[in-house]
Amino acid sequence: MKGSSDNESASSICTSSTDVDIPEAITVNAENILAFSGVSPVKTKGLNERQREKKGKDKFQKCIATIQMHLEQSYRIELPVQIDDRLQMYENLMDQLVEEFSKADNKRKLQILTLSPYTIEKTVEKFNTTNWMVKKAEN
Fold this sequence. Notes:
Elements: H1 2-14, H2 22-37, H3 49-75, H4 83-103, H5 106-113, H6 120-127, H7 131-138
């Protein structure tokens, strides 16, 4: 029966073994959920905290989009785009700018800083740069 196999899949995704340490069990459950959603597995080796956060947010958004697509197809409806989705797109864009900034030469860094909507202090913090460079970009 299709319904029982779906229930078995869902229960196997959400259960964890007490024999496994908590972080490993959580990672295994996350990988199962990602696989169920058609998203690549969790890989954190060699990633710093900021990269892990970005990867986690990206995978979360992909899971949400996949679930939304399946619900829309199953119920033949269109779910509205949430304001949070637009905010997430903005945050992703800012993350891309910060990543590009870290690799750029000084000329390109100044160009990127001109796009910052933040205050001088917040821009210095977000882009991990100096007051001087932010002020130079404003001129």
